[in-house]
C-alpha cells in the first residue's frame, strides 16, 4: 500500500498550511509544513494518496496553474502519516475561503472573502 511503516505507538505527523485557507487563487503560493517528532531525515509528501517522489524539503511551497482540489499528507521520520488536508485552487475573481484545519461540532467557523 501507499502508507509508510511507522513504529507502533508513534505520534502522528501534523500538516499545516500558510495561508491556512481554501480555496486559493491560481498561482498563489501556499507553504506546507510537516510537524513531527524532530527526528532527522527526509519528509515524505503525498498528493491524493500518492507519494510525491521529487519533493523532500520541509517546509515546501506549492502553487497550481490548474483549478481543482488535491489532498495533501506528510510523513515525518519517527511519526505516522498525517491526516489529509484538502486544498482547492480557483480561477474565480471572488472566493469565499474556509479554514483548512478540521473543525468539530460547536467550533466557531471563520470565513474569509477575497477578491
Automatic annotation (TrEMBL):
User: Cellular component per GO?
Assistant: external side of plasma membrane
Q: Kindly list the biological process annotations in GO that this record carries.
A: cell surface receptor signaling pathway; immune response
InterPro entries cross-referenced by the UniProt entry: Ig-like_dom_sf, Ig-like_fold, Ig_Fc_receptor
Q: Which UniProt keywords apply?
A: Disulfide bond, Signal
User: What GO molecular function terms would the record report?
Assistant: transmembrane signaling receptor activity
Q: Which SUPFAM superfamilies match?
A: Immunoglobulin
Q: What is this protein called?
A: FCRLB protein
Query: What's the source species' lineage?
Result: Eukaryota, Metazoa, Chordata, Craniata, Vertebrata
Amino acid at each position: 500500500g501507499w502508507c509508510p511503516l511507522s513504529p507502533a505507538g508513534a505520534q502522528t505527523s501534523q500538516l499545516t498550511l500558510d495561508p491556512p485557507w481554501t480555496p486559493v487563487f491560481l498561482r498563489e503560493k501556499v507553504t506546507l509544513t510537516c510537524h513531527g517528532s524532530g527526528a532527522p531525515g527526509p519528509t515524505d509528501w503525498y498528493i491524493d494518496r500518492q507519494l510525491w517522489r521529487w519533493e523532500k524539503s520541509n517546509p515546501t511551497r506549492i502553487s497550481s496553474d490548474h483549478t481543482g482540489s488535491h489532498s495533501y499528507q506528510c510523513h515525518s521520520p519517527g511519526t505516522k502519516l498525517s491526516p489529509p488536508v484538502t486544498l482547492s485552487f480557483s480561477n474565480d475573481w471572488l472566493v469565499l475561503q474556509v479554514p483548512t484545519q478540521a473543525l468539530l461540532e460547536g467550533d466557531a467557523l471563520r470565513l474569509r472573502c477575497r477578491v
